[in-house]
Amino acid sequence: MNWIAIWVTFKLASLTAAALLVIGLPIAYWLAYSTWRWKFVVESIVALPLVLPPTVLGFYILVAIGPHSPIGRFYADLVGHPLPFTFEGLLLASILYSLPFAVQPFATAFEQVDRKLIEASWTLGLSKVRTFFKLILPLSTAGLITGAVLSFAHTLGEFGVVLMVGGNIEGVTRTVSIDIYDEVQALNYAGAAKTAAFLLVISYLVLLLVYAMNRKVWAVWPQK
Amino acid sequence: MAAEIIVEVTKTFSGRTPIRAGFRYPVEASTVLILFGPSGSGKTTILRSVAGLEWPEEGTIQFVSRVWLDTRSRIKVSPQERHISYMAQDYALFPNYSVAGNIAYGLGELTLVERQKRVQEMVELFHLTGLEDAKPRELSGGQQQRVALARAVAPRPQLLLLDEPLSALDAPTRAQLRGELRGLLKQLALPSIIVTHDWAEALTLGDVMAVMHEGAILQVGAPQEVFSRPANADVARVVGVETVVQGTLIEAREGLATVRVGEISLTAVAVENVGSDVFVCIRAEDVTLEPAGAGLTSARNHLVGTVSAITSLGALARVTIECGFPLVAVITRSALTELGLTVGASVRASFKAGSAHLISRQ
């Protein structure tokens, strides 16, 4: 087994889940509580990575962070090297790719917090921000764990986006799924089988954890 | 400026009667206003608007010298800034916090020592000693109600809003807590607004009562007054109890109570812990009329008097009999004709001991 690829993959998945825990919360809060009539537009954008072919998403991210775009140039000027085909670039792509897997369980959990509890908190003098941290967040832990675990698991198995944005650099951007592909290309079925089995077991264990923890929340789609 | 609550709001809901309600009344330290009406009359919406949880499309809400809502000058004070407490019908206790945690929830601005002291005070006041660490789901309905109330009054709000505070309880607990709640509200000296559809609650708890029906306030006045002198037929129908008189409990024996109302002695079914000062409440449909001098009936109360007013209610008629106090009976028009009742006629009114409800006035 390619332990270096496994290390890169786990590092990528952990950082993606951690970043989404931070970025995903305000987005999910807004989606759960906003009464804006065009909210569905944002909802659809967040859900887009669920249906978009990873290569399409990867292509746009590659263009967006490449040396010909303002973002790419800004990054290159700041750091000294361009973003594509680096671990940071891959991390950014993974965050976007796994966004719905974090945001949707978060938003579902927030929506399931009884409105009356939130109102009780307001009338007791707690601001919306303090109500979020003292009440909504503690009551949403199952959803938070589901979102974090799903985005972790989803990142473990990503292939198309990694290939487009990260390339295939040993120790930097070569993840487990790329490694399996390479092994098969090299007709090394035994090596591929071992890594594939490893990924299968890990993914299954992760989902086992999610579903054992909350039986009611269907993890990906919010219940309306 | 006099210390007053002024509410004047309009709120529409699709598919429902719009709410156009207004009332104002002076507030003193312990004034309890009852918002009384059937479900769907809009009383909860008014309460939530006062709490800042509902935003009327138009109107003003003022509490003492502060304007909480004025749609014309775009003043909208958030619930956080109103320093009120709102207790929802199902209490809305925080399931992730203990009893002590719930009570301490709104005390973030106090120091740790002060906060602990306040929680301890509340625990004692509301008889929650020993339950400090229990989670809400481990408590009985009555205990949950006390925790919710303790949480609401702990931050010492300037106005307490209670939405059907006793409706989630079973009947015996409700009767017991009704008296306790009255005592507590007086002890705390906290102006309150209580929403209810239970006339016993209105009479026990209220100093002022506003009757709501189909989104409008029909009458504001002292509860006893509203019950015994409804401003119009709608109010009479909404309150449902036409006769409310003050009396003194003389004795209670073998389950029956003797109550003195002026010169008259009435028999009622005894109720525990009512004290000697009581309201006697009699629904008009429980009163039967017969010619004066009729024979024995199973009813325990027979009062001879003269008819002082007759109002037509379609197939029914509302007859007021002066028999030491004004007693209201609702009878059919045919009975009215058969008995030959006119204003000034002599008649005997009867009602069973079980129809004379005693409500504590303490």
Strand content of chain A: under 5%
The helicity of chain A comes to over 70%
Biggest sheet overview of chain A:
none
Low-confidence stretches of chain A: 217-224
Q: How would you describe the shape of chain A?
A: globular
Integer average pLDDT of chain B? 89
Distance between the termini of chain A: 44 Å
Largest interface (CB < 8 Å): A-B, 17 and 25 residues
CATH class of the largest domain in chain B: Alpha Beta
| CATH homology group of chain A | MetI-like
Tally of individual helices of chain B:
9
**What is the architecture of the largest domain in chain B at the second tier of CATH?**
3-Layer(aba) Sandwich
Strand-residue fraction of chain B?
A: 35-45%
SSE topology string of chain A: HHHHHHHHHHH
| Uncertain regions spanning at least 5 consecutive residues of chain B | none
SSE string of chain B: EEEHEEEEHHHEHEHEEHHEEEEEEEEHEE
Number of domains of chain B: 2
Number of helices of chain A: 11
CATH topology descriptor of the largest domain in chain B? Rossmann fold
Shape of chain B: globular
